[in-house]
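Worked example 3 (structure in, sequence out).
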């Protein structure tokens, strides 16, 4: 791909930069969405930020205009992302909706659902969550047990989900349920949109090792969902879920974005800290820095290649899995080096100062490595679909290529 801006892109870049400068005081700033502790005050601030960006035409750039999107290209989206990154605008609070739920509703939802949900999702008027994982089914997602039974007044839901990011702030979620216990496990699933404020929904936040409470366990006790809230056909939910999962891998770094502390922050940190190190340690740190920066650039350009192919009509495939794997590795290496550059000062870093971000990122990346498909599962997908290696010996109904 050509890395120089076309005249159109250059024009867009100037106007985005101008918009961000003019609205700077209305925007929240920070590191990527995956490093945020979304306490209530911060959530309000982040919602406002997303609304300002949406009103300025900077959210949902590639989404259909009929539902509030910009109808523009992925390359134009990349320009906007770069400018937001440069201005250190905080990652969008609606990242689960933007990255996973919205694309799923757009692809499998009815016209009525798209009209009711998409614009509000883009503007963070409604926050969304993804209700897939259960205590007994993460990587082997299709083994899930939350039941949906059809009665006269709608689908009755009974069961439990876990690790549901943003559920405590969400108005809606996409919910994968078992509707046919007799069918093989990938065939008897159905996807719904669920109102998280409906009677029978209980959300309990969980604390992670980075100290944040960004995900939750969610209980469904005879929650009723109208059939008009189904996404896709009855018992065809696995196909719908694959749309979500592929978009999730694109969103979590697959598009070339950085998911931990950004590499320019690492460079600035290194410039400050390197002079304080002994010669030996400085040499090692410089080598490590070079390696992280090269990997980060490679991840970004590979992401651009994927975006270019999507612009030509492609869909996110195994490349998104490779992109997510690399983005996580870069985030991990960035956090480790940032922490090592602090040396003994790492012990004294506090949550109120900038040095804390390295520890937060170090404690967050193992979780990001699991979310949206654990590293081992993504490697299996690449092994089987890209390298054409023999599938593993798992029984057919839990085949890797079909699981997360
Ligand atoms: C920060 C975070 C946010 C999340 N947000 C959401 C969310 O919003 N919604 C949602 O539904 N879920 C969410 N999840 C859950 C996530 O999707 C699961 O954690 C993930 O799918 C792994 O499932 P598990 O935790 O049950 O681990 P397991 O599936 O039990 O896996 C444990 C380990 O075994 C390995 N393993 C499992 N099977 C195989 C195999 N066949 N071959 C090789 N290795 C294997 C895995 O790679 C992993 O290392 C989130 C998780 C995290 C950490």
């Amino acid at each position: 791909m050509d890395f120089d801006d076309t005249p159109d892109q250059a024009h867009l870049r100037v106007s985005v930069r101008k918009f961000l400068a003019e609205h700077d005081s209305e925007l929240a700033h920070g590191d990527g969405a995956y490093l945020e502790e979304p306490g209530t005050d911060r959530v309000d601030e982040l919602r406002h930020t997303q609304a300002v960006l949406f009103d300025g035409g900077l959210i949902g750039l590639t989404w259909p205009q009929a539902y509030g999107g910009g109808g523009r290209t992925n390359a134009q989206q990349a320009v906007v992302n770069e400018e937001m990154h440069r201005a250190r605008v905080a990652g969008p609070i609606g990242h689960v909706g933007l990255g996973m739920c919205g694309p799923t509703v757009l692809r499998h939802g009815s016209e009525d659902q798209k009209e009711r949900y998409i614009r509000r999702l883009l503007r963070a008027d409604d926050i969304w969550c993804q209700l897939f994982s259960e205590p007994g089914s993460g990587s082997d997602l299709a083994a899930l047990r939350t039941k949906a039974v059809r009665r006269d007044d709608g689908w009755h839901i009974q069961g439990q989900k876990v690790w549901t990011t943003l559920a405590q702030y969400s108005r809606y979620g996409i919910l994968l349920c078992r509707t046919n216990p007799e069918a093989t496990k990938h065939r008897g699933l159905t996807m719904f949109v669920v109102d998280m404020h409906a009677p029978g929904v209980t959300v309990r936040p969980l604390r992670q090792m980075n100290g944040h409470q960004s995900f939750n366990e969610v209980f469904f006790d005879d929650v009723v969902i109208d059939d008009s809230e189904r996404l896709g056909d009855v018992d065809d939910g696995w196909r719908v879920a694959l749309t979500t999962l592929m978009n999730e891998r694109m969103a979590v770094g697959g598009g070339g974005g950085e998911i931990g502390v950004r590499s320019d922050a690492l460079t600035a940190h290194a410039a400050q800290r390197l002079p304080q190190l002994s010669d030996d340690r400085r040499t090692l740190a410089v080598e490590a820095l070079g390696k992280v920066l090269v990997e980060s650039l490679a991840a970004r350009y590979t992401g651009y290649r994927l975006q270019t192919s999507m612009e030509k009509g492609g869909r996110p495939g195994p490349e998104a899995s490779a992109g997510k794997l690399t983005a996580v590795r870069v985030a991990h290496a960035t956090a480790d080096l940032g922490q090592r550059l602090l040396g003994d000062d790492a012990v004294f870093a506090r949550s109120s100062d900038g040095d804390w971000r390295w520890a937060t990122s170090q404690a967050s990346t193992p979780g990001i490595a699991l979310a949206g498909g654990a590293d081992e599962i993504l490697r299996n997908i690449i092994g089987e679909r890209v390298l054409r290696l023999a599938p593993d010996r798992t029984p057919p109904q839990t085949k890797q290529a079909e699981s997360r």
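Notes: DSSP finds twelve helices and eight strands in the chain. The mean pLDDT is 89.
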